[in-house]
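We close this part of the discussion by returning to an individual protein. The encoding preserves chain order, so positions in sequence and tokens coincide. The sequence in question and its structure tokens are set out directly beneath this paragraph:

===
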Amino acid sequence: MLIDHTNGRVLDVLESRDKQALLAWLREGKQSGLLWSLEEVTCDMWGAYPQAIQEVFGRSVRVTVDRFHVMKHFQEQLADARRELQRGIGREQSKLLKGSRFLWLTNPENLSAEQRGHLQTLKQKFPLLGKLADHREALRAIFEDRSITTVATAVGRLRQWCDAGRELGLYAVNQFNKTLTHWMEEIANYFVSRSSNGRTEGFNRGLRSILQRACGMQNFSHFRLRVLHQFG
């Protein structure tokens, strides 16, 4: 699904997610004038997206990796890192962590006072897990820091964060550092205009509602027309 964030509408729905389908659509949009004012594209960390954009527009269009996809990917690595740590603390101590996954994954401001107190207790009992949770909050703080307005500043802060993560000595965190380093420029581009794919997720729910009301659709062309009629 391709979204016009400026005007809040669906531009099109492609039947295939592969690079060639996207290239064809971008080239047609450029030739027709539909994309003549395109300045920035937000996407997730799937390599075909930026590759297709750069093949059609070169460096004239800024490619931004959506910050929420970055955090989602890091959350997945955090789960692996916690399991990595729990394997080394023994069965009896592991019992103290049972049922605490929600506390580690939820933003502190969304926890109740009692839950925050419980999390703080767990951090004191399991210092390395506490450092891991604080490392997550440090990444969120970078994304929330409104004083970061340039790619260069963002890259510097993100590299410092990666350096701090290496000191934890966890395989899962180091793997995420590799991903972040690979996508560093595209992630840092977020700080220029702070664009996100939040609206896309809303449209995705709308598309699912069309499918639910129709009890599923076998004909993609009919589905595409319904989407464009309702959201285009």
About this structure: The chain has a mean pLDDT of 89. The first strand starts at residue 2 and ends at 4. The radius of gyration is 21 Å. The chain has 13 helices and four strands.
